[in-house]
Design goal:
- By secondary structure, the chain is α/β, with parallel strands linked by helices.
- It has two domains: 170 residues, Periplasmic binding protein-like II (D-Maltodextrin-Binding Protein, domain 2, 3-Layer(aba) Sandwich); 194 residues, D-Maltodextrin-Binding Protein, domain 2, CATH 3.40.190.10.
- The strands form four sheets. It has a five-stranded mixed sheet.
- The chain starts with a helix and ends with a helix.
Length: 413
């Protein structure tokens, strides 16, 4: 009896010890993010998959609303950092890198062949030759066009800016706006500026401009506006764009009153809701202006980073490597309706996502994030106000650039 009791005691003790050991081995990974409902569900599924593959890791996700997160991240990176935090690529991550609040994760890139599989976004994740996070989704910008309007004007889809401008003359003769946009909210004008500058001066110059390293009165900036003037001065852009929201301009493209729209892929749903089909809606890359400038694209990129104050760095790096894989990025972006960055990922049958994936996966010149992400908030606002004014009053360019240069000297101190 005593032997049986002793044996039972040892079994219970061993069981308790095993339970204690198991509890001790369970590790927590804290993750702060700002997902909308659809991305949140997609990430919860990805986290469940990660936890199943790593049963000793428990991921605790805390989700914020977008606006609240912009303030929260500045606080929690300083006070009580999580192990993982969502943010954005390019100049938007630079302040946190430069202040030492994001960790260098170059080893994750090196050990998982990410320089090859995530090559299209590598430049926007790199500062001082090091990588500071992992990107998981982006979406392309470019020119969406009405195929029927092209047929009506008797023109072909252009590859060069010269061909594009020549088409504009024929669209105008046919009573069709060559380019439509709605700049009431300012930001659509920034998409046009970004592409004109990327095609005229290239990615590195554009990044230096939005980082405050280039004067707005520089002759190279004036060259960008000279290309823009080829649209503005002859009246090739929808005349009342400053009074239009971007959806209003989308209606003009849908109706065939406009031929081209510089816009992001999120607009496709609006075009199709308005009755456009794959037979009437087309997509093309922004045309080449300077053939010596490598093609760069506009693709706002969402990223995950390891804060400097993270407590569980090893598991955070495991999670970054997991999120970077082709299969995980395929699943995430199916739910997001956006594009995976891993070149080995797959996209669905949507022709516009397929075109965007091909475009961005083969981009040699770099990925810009969009003017209001790449520039500080105050500079972005003043810049976009200047872009809108130029589109209405091109004769005021010198005054606009002088005003922006004065702002640059103050904002980037």
């Amino acid at each position: 009896m005593k032997t049986a009791l002793k044996s039972a005691f040892f079994c219970l003790a061993a069981s308790a010890l095993m339970g204690t050991t198991a509890m001790a081995q369970q590790r927590t990974l804290t993750y702060y993010a700002d997902f909308d409902p659809a991305p949140l569900a997609a990430f919860e599924a990805a986290i469940a998959e990660f936890e199943a593959a790593n049963p000793d890791i428990d991921v605790e996700l805390q989700n914020f609303d977008h606006e609240g997160y912009k303030t929260a991240i500045r606080n929690f990176l300083t006070a009580d950092a999580p192990d993982l935090a969502n943010w954005y690529a390019g100049n938007r991550m630079a302040p946190f890198v430069n202040s030492g609040q994001f960790q260098d994760v170059s080893d994750v890139w090196d050990e998982n062949n990410l320089h090859e599989t995530l090559a299209s976004a590598a430049a926007s994740m790199t500062i001082d030759g090091k990588q500071w996070g992992v990107p998981y989704t982006y979406y392309q910008w470019g020119i969406y066009y009405n195929k029927t309007a092209y047929e009506q004007a008797g023109v072909e889809v252009p590859e060069t800016w010269e061909e594009f401008i020549a088409n504009c003359e024929k669209f105008k003769a046919a009573g069709i706006d060559c380019v439509t946009t709605g700049t009431k909210a300012l930001w659509p004008a920034a998409g046009i500026f970004d592409y004109l500058d990327l095609r005229t001066n290239g990615y590195d110059f554009h990044m230096d401009l939005t980082a405050g390293k280039v004067a707005w009165t520089d002759d190279r900036i004036k060259a960008t506006f000279a290309e823009w003037a080829k649209l503005v001065e002859p009246g090739y852009i929808t005349a009342n764009h400053a009074a239009l929201d971007w959806q209003d301009a989308a209606s003009l493209l849908i109706q065939g009153k406009a031929a081209n729209y510089v816009m992001g892929n999120f607009a496709v749903a609006v075009f199709k809701d308005g009755g456009m089909t794959d037979d009437t809606l087309g997509f093309m890359p922004f045309p080449t202006i300077n053939p010596d400038v490598p093609r760069a694209e506009e693709a706002p990129t969402d990223t995950i980073h390891i804060p400097a104050g993270a407590k569980n760095v090893d598991d955070a790096k495991k999670f970054l490597a997991f999120i970077a894989t082709a299969d995980v990025q395929t699943k995430l972006n199916e739910a997001l309706g956006q594009l995976p960055i891993n070149s080995g990922s797959k996209v669905g049958d949507d022709p516009f996502l397929q075109a965007g994936f091909e475009l961005l996966s083969t981009t040699p010149g770099g990925i810009a994030q969009f003017f209001d992400r790449d520039a500080p908030a105050e500079m972005a606002k003043m810049g976009m106000e200047g872009f809108q004014q130029f589109m209405v009053q091109p004769d005021q360019l010198d005054n606009i650039l002088a005003r922006l240069e004065k702002a640059r000297e103050r904002i980037y101190k």
